[in-house]
Amino acid sequence: MSSRRDERAARSLYRAFREDKPGRSRRVGIDVPRAAAVVGQVEFIGYVTTHRGKSYLYLHEFAEGSRPMMVAGKRRGQLFLVGGRFKFTARGITDLNAAGQAIDAPSRYKVVKR
Fold first, then answer.
1. Alpha-carbon span 7 to 1, nearest angstrom
2. CA–CA separation, 104 vs 9, rounded Å?
3. What's the predicted TM-score (pTM) here?
4. Does the structure show a pLDDT above 90 at 111?
């Protein structure tokens, strides 16, 4: 995929998820190591983001079979989610079944207004 196409896709995902226009784009360099240590499987993840100027805490419990591995590179700031059956959508993290279809499991995530 071209960098312009990547940027358009990223802006579209931002708009869909954050329900807001993206601000000025910035490039974020990602140094992917050739080898990394597998730390373990990710059971759940929490992150804070904003929607329409309000801050929310998202807590997502991965479905069995959808859980990614957490791997660490040697350099500072190198922690990655690798594998698993999920994708990031307008709803946030969406677990997928073996056929690649979204698993509709509202009990697996929680949104908390901060």
1. 10
2. 24
3. 0.82
4. no
